[in-house]
Sequence to fold (750 residues):
Amino acid sequence: MLEQMEGSQAVATAIALARPQVICAYPITPQTHIVEGLGEMVKSGELKGCEFINVESEFAALSVAIGASAAGARTYTATSSQGLLFMAEAVYNAAGLELPIVMTIGNRAIGAPINIWNDHSDSMALRDAGWIQLFADTNQEALDLHIQAFRLAEDLSCPVMVCMDGFILTHAYERVDLPAQAEVDAFLPPYEPRQVLDPAQPVTIGAMVGPDAFTEVRYLAHHRQLSALEKIPEVAAAFKARFGRASGGLLRGYRMEGAETVVIALGSVNGTVQDVIDEMRADGMAIGSLAIGTFRPFPLAALRAALAGAKRVLVLEKCLAAGVGGIVTDDVRRALAGEQVRINTVIGGLGGRAITRESLRRVFADACAARLERLSFLDLDTGVVERELARERAARRSGPTAEAVLRQLGAPGSRLG
Amino acid sequence: MIQQTIKFYQTGTFTVGNRLLDESQRSVQANMERTNSLNSGHRACQGCGEALGARYAIDAAMRATGNRLIAVNATGCLEVFSTPYPESSWQIPWIHSLFGNAAAVASGIAAALRMRGQDDVRVIAQGGDGGTTDIGFGCLSGMFERNDDVLYLCYDNEAYMNTGVQRSSATPPTARTATTMAVGDEPGNPFGTGKNVPLIAMAHHIPYVATATVANLRDLEAKVTKAMALRGARYIHIHVPCPLGWGSDPALTIRIARLAVESGLFPLFEAAHGELTSRTFIRRRVPAAEYLRLQKRFAHLFTAGAEAQLARVQAIADRNIERFGLLAPESAS
Ligand SMILES: Cc1ncc(C[n+]2csc(CCOP(=O)(O)OP(=O)(O)O)c2C)c(N)n1
Ligand code: SF4
Ligand SMILES: [Mg+2]
Fold:
């Protein structure tokens, strides 16, 4: 059924269709509308057989989810940014305990300076916690990925994060195709836990494991992630067969035929990237793009194969490893080990800075012409940076940087996307 | 239940002699059918009060629930000594997640059980004083405030034992720990610090709060049994001596726990919905020094010049006795 709705509402509807039994959450922008929507569905009786728990922190939200999942309930939570970091210890724990919890990340920057707008710093900070990480390009895909996520999580007994860009997707109204309950039920069988706390068959979960077995336990976690690389395309294919549209999977190529320059990106910016590629293709440039749909596990082999004909790769990243550069780039480089491919990193969209077609077109053209530096920052105001550096050199007690930069710029909110 | 009035005169101990009681009133631990939920073979130190407390409490809860019980454990001595995998002492479904989230994990289990139509299965969360009064306090308060259907058991040995005896917010004034050394002008843990979590639990107006001790097995079992008959958030704070951390003789664990009660330093009481409903009278009042002297962590109180510090500890005991009315009316004079 086609409907015009907010991204958050589309996700809430998808979660409800998946028949969760326990939902718990703590509010943080831009995740709020998702859980508010679900809270209302539970309270009104529209979503039956589900308990919604308002907890006192994100650490508690994921901890309640851990308990609920270990006791055999299909469990969901959602968070963003500071909230994800606040629950970090439990994020690792849920994966270590092999609990198939599904969590939406409404991607948002991490402070300080505090910033509620979109980038990917939050998901990236916990990329190696043992969760599967799927990134949505559109609201339709966010909806579809959540339905796939429960099946993946429960098949593998591994938690899944579905990452969607804060505001850009969570708050955007778009047309989405809502699946029918019967179709979702047919796609997603009831949760049958691999391990469950049950007095009829008492088990100990979460015991102490020493040097004698820890390596093997960790290896098996790695093995499970590798098997997810096969499972994810399978689930995406099953989804397509039932619902008639392609969603999810490892990588999504766009105009890759004969592409010499390939842009790699995650999330909603792929829409803008594809528009620019259309323009440049019309001008005769051999450029295409790859959206990374699955960031963890990282599809090394699939990416290497997809980039077989490429001469140059431009990784457009909404995150930064300060003192290093790109985060996604490291994995791309690993995929291309031994290949003669030039890799450029462009950091853009930090803290909600708009990524415009114009700016992308400029850096893509520079990349095609091999004029782009290995690491660059999209639309960086070097004037501001130089003046601030000079000010810091001039006075020992120069004060906090963020506030000084704002003072230079004057008008608040002048560069929002 | 019919109560049989019996006076026990076992020299020095006041231990309840089950032989004198009617079969139906004997303790859970005395019963052949007890579940041994925390089975022998674990790696607690000799004389560990926490191991005893957990054993008594969980067996009593098993009896009360017809063995339909799940336990969550915070990180700490109890968790570590009971589950060096592949060995586990637990005969019941048991999960350890993190140090500070036992109460929240238990809330999640209770919710899942409700949604799965298994609400005859009951949930206990348990942790040490550090996991309860410090790092797990947020989750604990949240569980209380939502009145989730969980009994939380705090095994209070008054410090972070598992990491080597560091101070917690349950460490009493003057106690020496690895982070409150017995040096300087005010040796040991400073006065005027710490918090009383049973009273804070009461301030949440939850259905049941109690304090208990390994020195009074029957009272502990009765409180757990009572708690399991209720629904909603419940809290029992159990005083459990730690020979290693306290520098006490493992053979004296029960006696030391009893002296804490008899001196007034650890009052035994119950509360329902925020109101005090019972207290256990002190049977033979003793000076605080009798309790303190048996523990090396208080050794500095018995050196020349420490009289004022000792007197301040005695004043805390006196204040408790007055505040909770711990002397029976006939012996109040
Ligand atoms: C987040 C976190 N911080 C610190 C620790 C280290 N730690 C493990 S057990 C423990 C002490 C436990 O003390 P308590 O809760 O009083 O239990 P006890 O061992 O005394 O029974 C500490 C500090 C941890 N495991 N996790
Ligand atoms: S250190 Fe203390 S609490 Fe830990 S096992 Fe030993 S006696 Fe028990
Ligand atoms: Mg302790």
Observations:
- Chain B has one domain: 30-324.
